[in-house]
Structure formats: structure tokens, C-alpha cells
Amino acid sequence: MAKEPVRVLVTGAAGQIGYALVPMIARGVMLGPDQPVILHMLDIPPAAEALNGVKMELVDAAFPLLKGVVATTDVVEACTGVNIAIMVGGFPRKEGMERKDVMSKNVSIYKSQASALEKHAAANCKVVVVANPANTNALILKEFAPSIPEKNVTCLTRLDHNRALGQISEKLNVQVCDVKNVIIWGNHSSTQYPDVNHATVKTPAGEKPVRELVADDEWLNGEFITTVQQRGAAIIKARKLSSALSAASAACDHIHDWVLGTPEGTWVSMGVYSDGSYNVPAGLIYSFPVTCRNGEWSIVQGLHIDEFSRKKLDLTAQELSEEKALAYSCLT
Ligand SMILES: NC(=O)c1ccc[n+]([C@@H]2O[C@H](COP(=O)([O-])OP(=O)(O)OC[C@H]3O[C@@H](n4cnc5c(N)ncnc54)[C@H](O)[C@@H]3O)[C@@H](O)[C@H]2O)c1
Ligand SMILES: O=C(O)C[C@H](O)C(=O)O
């Protein structure tokens, strides 16, 4: 029997991530090749015409899984009945801007959209915030939508996770699908800590630790980390626009694994509400290694954190605490 369609909201759908993301969702990349979808696309009135153009292209693409499109500038209409919300709408970082610069513009959007989601989304709606500052926007959304379970509000750090996999695969000249269990700790910002201490590579002789195969701690503790931390800025410098196709693909990976589960023995990185695991302060949206089963994520427990890593986990937590305070000051 055919499955019931899932309603997926994409905010900021007339923007560049939206343009890359909606066809991926309509093709089944996010929820699987047998899952029909109804797309809800929200943007603001100045982008209404462009949004309608995206809707026209979705119709023209004749995606078999796409059972309907709602394209609107009305936040209530956009949020009504949605099962999954991908929050991309907001003001993007431009060359030379720090994420903090976009904070005041974006947190007020997330406060108001929190109320609309809380009132109108389907029960158990899963939310991922993509728009920067992603962790803090997600925190504001969670706090202003108290009836949405806190486990349902997350932010995207899968792009950073995938960037780390990509760097290791290039360094070792191996397939990216053979590298697993890197971790992004903390903020989707330049203080994030990409950690390879538990990462492995599938080789003909079995799974081997990344550290052993790379055999270059200076690179792993230096250039590798800064390359991943600075990759968003490098893309902005090269394209004069922030990353879009990789961000859209990562958003699909995030929801795919959350809904359909992570493969046995593999974890992924998600920005989730901290419960104090790994001595990360509770009450922040912080990126952790997680496994997913039956539509629920759980933080991977018991990983050894050495002194080098500890400092980096604390530094990015510190930045998130400061962002949280700044966000609240922007809202008052
Ligand atoms: N977390 C990540 O990994 C990651 C990666 C790349 C980009 N980003 C962030 O994603 C966001 C979107 O990037 P983009 O390149 O698509 O930007 P964009 O400017 O091309 O698109 C943003 C869209 O949001 C719309 N918008 C603005 N305010 C809105 C509101 N209140 N409601 C609904 N829509 C609204 C704009 O009209 C625009 O169409 C930015 O904040 C960017 O920094 C995050
Ligand atoms: O760095 C940015 O603001 C863009 C985006 O978050 C990215 O990581 O590509």
C-alpha cells in the first residue's frame, strides 16, 4: 500500500539553499524513494514572485513522489500540518561578516516562527535549523516553542561532519563512504571542533583508525581542523555566496538519518539540546556524535576525551553560552 505523504516545510525556499534543497526532497533523497511528500515553501513577500517560479519548476520537473506544493508568504499556512521543518530562511552571512553580525537579524525571525510551528505543525514535528547562527537560532526556536519536545529541535552540523569526512578521504585517497565516525563538537562556527580520534577507515585489512593511517598528528591537530572550521568562509570567498548544494545535501542527510536511522556501528553529528553529556553545559544546542533509531537520536556515550579535545569542547561551549546571552539581549 502506498505510504501517506509527509509534509515538509522549507523556509527561505526562494533562496539559494532552498533552490538546491527542494528538488532533492521531491526526488526522495531525504525520506527515501518510496515516501511521497508535500512541500510547504515559505518566503517573505519581496521573494514571493521568485518563490512562485520555484513552484512552477517543481511542477515542470514532474517528480513522481511530489504530491503537492504549498508556496506561501503566510507563516501559518506554511506551518500547518507539517511533519518536518527545515528552517533555512534568514539573512545569510556575507564576505567579511562574522556569524554574530547576523544574530540580531535572525533570532527575532526564529522567535516568531517558533510560535507558528508550535501552534500549527503536526504533533511530533521534527525541526532542523540551517540558518545561521544555526545553534542559537535553534535554541531560541526551542525556548519559544515550549510545547515542542526539546528532542525535536536540532540544528545542522552535518555539513561540517561531511566536510571532515571529505578532507580525510582526500588526504588518504580513499572513498569518502569508507571513512566514518568523525565528530563535530559544538557550534556551527569557526570554534567547532572536528575530532578524528574515534574515526576509522574501511580497508582491505579491516577497519583502521584514521590517526594511524594519516600518521601525521601535526596535520590532524592543525591544518585539518582549521580547514573544516573555515570551510564555510572559504566557500563564501570563492563563490561570493555561502555554500548551498553541500548545505542542502547535508540537510537531507540529517533528516534521512534521524528518520530512517544510522547504520549499525556508525554515528553522525547533530546539533542537539545538551543534557550535560561530556560535561557540556546543559541548555545549549551543541553538536554531539549521535546514533538514530526509530526516529529518535541518542548521544553516543563513553568516548574518551583527551586534554587537547577537552579544551576545544570547552571553547566552543563558551562561545555558545556567549551567543545565547547575546541572542537574549537582541530580543529584549
Ligand atoms: N548550518 C549550515 O551548515 C549552513 C550552511 C550554509 C548556509 N547556512 C545558512 O543558511 C541560511 C540561508 O542561506 P542561503 O544561502 O539560502 O541564503 P539566501 O539569502 O539565498 O536565502 C535565504 C532566504 O530566506 C528568506 N527569508 C528571509 N527572512 C525570512 C523569513 N522571516 N521567513 C522566511 N524566509 C525568509 C529570504 O527571502 C531568502 O529567500 C543563511 O543563514 C546561511 O548563513 C547554514
Ligand atoms: O560560514 C557560513 O556562514 C556559511 C555556512 O554556515 C557554511 O558553513 O558554509
From TrEMBL:
Family: Belongs to the LDH/MDH superfamily. MDH type 2 family.
EC category: oxidoreductase
Residue stretches making up the Lactate/malate dehydrogenase C-terminal domain: 157-325
Active site: H188 (proton acceptor)
Catalytically driven reaction(s): (S)-malate + NAD(+) = oxaloacetate + NADH + H(+)
EC number: 1.1.1.37
NCBIfam families: MalateDH-SF1, MDH_euk_cyt, PRK05442.1
Binding sites annotated in the UniProt record for substrate: R93, R99, N132, R163
Residues annotated as binding NAD(+): G12, A13, A14, G15, Q16, I17, G18, D43, N106, V130, A131, N132
Lineage of the species this protein comes from: Eukaryota, Viridiplantae, Streptophyta, Embryophyta, Tracheophyta
Record's protein name: Malate dehydrogenase
Domain Lactate/malate dehydrogenase N-terminal: 6-153
Keyword line: NAD, Oxidoreductase, Tricarboxylic acid cycle
UniProt-recorded Gene Ontology molecular function terms: L-malate dehydrogenase (NAD+) activity
Keyword Nuclease: no
Superkingdom of this protein's organism: Eukaryota
Keyword Iron-sulfur applies: no
One GO-annotated biological process of the protein: tricarboxylic acid cycle
InterPro entries per UniProt: L-lactate/malate_DH, Lactate/malate_DH_C, Lactate/malate_DH_N, Lactate_DH/Glyco_Ohase_4_C, Malate_DH_AS, Malate_DH_NAD-dep_euk, Malate_DH_type2, NAD(P)-bd_dom_sf
